[in-house]
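Thread: Newbie trying to understand structure tokens

Hi all, I'm a second-year student working on a class project, and my supervisor (Dr. K.) asked me to get a predicted structure for one chain before our next meeting. I've only ever worked with sequences, so writing a 3D structure as a token string is new to me. If someone could post the tokens and maybe explain what I'm looking at, I'd be very grateful. Here's the chain:
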Amino acid sequence: MHNVDTVLLPFLHSTDESERDRLLAELLLEHATPIIRMTLKHRLNFYVSRLGTNPDNPDAEDLYSKVIEEIVKRLRELQSEPDRKGIKHFDQYVQRIAVNILSQLSAIEGSTALSFEEQSPLLARQP
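---
Reply by user tm_fold:
Sure, no problem. This is what the structure looks like when written as tokens:
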């Protein structure tokens, strides 16, 4: 397992399932969550708590959850298939996933709006 951020090594080398789960939770809480929170705040002005919650904004919670799901998926793949390409800089990787998910959302919302305008040109032109 080469070209892997050292912060990931305890998780990737763990053979005990409960220890691996604990290390994964620690990676997410201590390393990934601050980056995800900052990205949501800077890109969308969305706030989520350290635990990824915001009872006043379920969209923020949903986006946070989507990013966490993608990170967990990738880390589990990396752990189960050590020959896969590694994550050299975990913090940059987390930020890239968060930005990609937010960009995908923007593209979906943009295409939905465009589609609506194309279907209803008279409504789209009204002040």
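A couple of things are worth pointing out once you decode it. The chain is about 70% helix and 0% strand. Confidence is low (pLDDT under 50) at residues 111-127. Feel free to ask follow-ups in this thread.
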